[in-house]
Design brief:
Layout: H1 3-19, H2 23-41, H3 45-55, H4 61-84, H5 90-96, E1 97-99, H6 101-112, E2 117-121, H7 127-137, E3 141-146, H8 152-163, E4 168-171, H9 175-184, E5 189-194, E6 205-209, E7 212-216, H10 219-227, E8 231-240, E9 243-252, H11 262-277
Parallel strand pairs: 1-9, 2-5, 2-8, 3-4, 3-5
Antiparallel strand pairs: 6-7, 8-9
Helix pairs in contact: 1-4, 1-8, 2-4, 3-4
Length: 297
């Protein structure tokens, strides 16, 4: 039996049930998940611990341990909050996720100018909710770039979550053609790119990030230059449990006039500031520093 079929008949019904639970029960389940993921299984604990130690060399062992625990609690919350997108109403969503007036003004100005843009973000706060917030609050049509999952059932479930408020999802291999088609038809879009993954080292832009020599995924820079789309940074900050605030800032207004590497550098430096403000709410379990630069000076 195919994995997608097994998922649809076993896992998906449980996820849908969870999606209908009120937030207090959702976070009660999250507390249990934290005990299992962190205390019993120790999911990627060595990776998280190493990443935190190298990123914050001036923090004490006690501070790092506390940050480690806070990360796992946030991580479990995000997993369940993402599932909640399956059922949450726009009205309830707005109570849990707000947006700054300056962000509304920034995007409205581009909308009035009939200008599309690149929406650059990292795995901070709740990145899945950032896409939903775009559709709930902003006038442009969000086109989220994603990598299809190998399990077809899980892939289809995630697409349902991400598109519920009208967001479109497009595989990376098809995004250039999709942008061309949409812009030629006069559609104003925000191209959503999560750009803090670990890229192949030979094609990466390298820079200092969180005290480490880091390869940077330069997809947003290449796309922004190709279409000369302004780059807007989406800062999704966690205010407290179940409450997020989204603030947008203009990184680069005219990409074609900037030096090579400037867009990637601006994005990563801004992301770094976001992480430092809210350090537990970033995906520390990812092996972002598994590569080393050849001929590193």
């Amino acid at each position: 039996m195919k994995k997608g079929v097994v998922f649809n008949f076993t896992v998906k019904p449980l996820l849908v049930l969870i999606a209908y639970l009120p937030f207090p029960l959702l976070y009660l389940i999250s507390d249990g998940m934290y005990f299992f993921v962190y205390r019993l299984v120790g999911y990627r604990k060595a990776v998280v611990r190493t990443n935190l130690m190298q990123s914050f060399p001036n923090k004490s062992r006690h501070e790092l341990k506390l940050l480690e625990k806070q990360f796992y609690k946030w991580f479990c919350d995000v997993l369940l909050e993402t599932i909640k997108l399956y059922t949450i109403s726009p009205t309830l969503f707005k109570k849990h996720c707000t947006i700054s007036q300056a962000s509304l003004d920034l995007v409205s100005d581009y909308y009035n100018k009939k200008q599309s843009y690149i929406a650059a973000m990292g795995h901070t706060g709740n990145w899945e909710w950032a896409g939903a917030a775009h559709q709930v609050y902003l006038p442009h049509h969000m086109i989220a770039v994603y990598h299809p999952l190998s399990n077809r059932g899980m892939d289809q479930f995630m697409i349902q979550l991400r598109t519920r408020f009208g967001c479109a999802v497009v595989p990376m291999q098809k995004i250039v053609r999709d942008i061309v088609n949409r812009t030629q038809n006069g559609e104003m879009i925000g191209v959503g790119l999560i750009a803090d993954q670990t890229p192949p080292p030979e094609s990466a832009y390298w820079m200092q990030f969180l005290n480490q020599d880091t390869p940077v995924f330069n997809g947003p820079e290449k796309m922004a230059r190709k279409f000369n789309l302004p780059v807007i940074y989406f800062d999704m900050q966690r205010i407290k449990r179940g409450r997020y605030h989204l603030h947008l800032s203009l990184l680069v207004p005219t990409p074609k006039s900037t030096p090579e590497g400037a867009i990637s550098n601006a994005f990563m430096k801004t992301l770094e500031s976001s992480i430092i403000k809210n350090p537990e709410a970033w995906l520390w379990s990812h092996r972002r520093w598994k590569h080393q630069r050849k001929n590193n000076p």
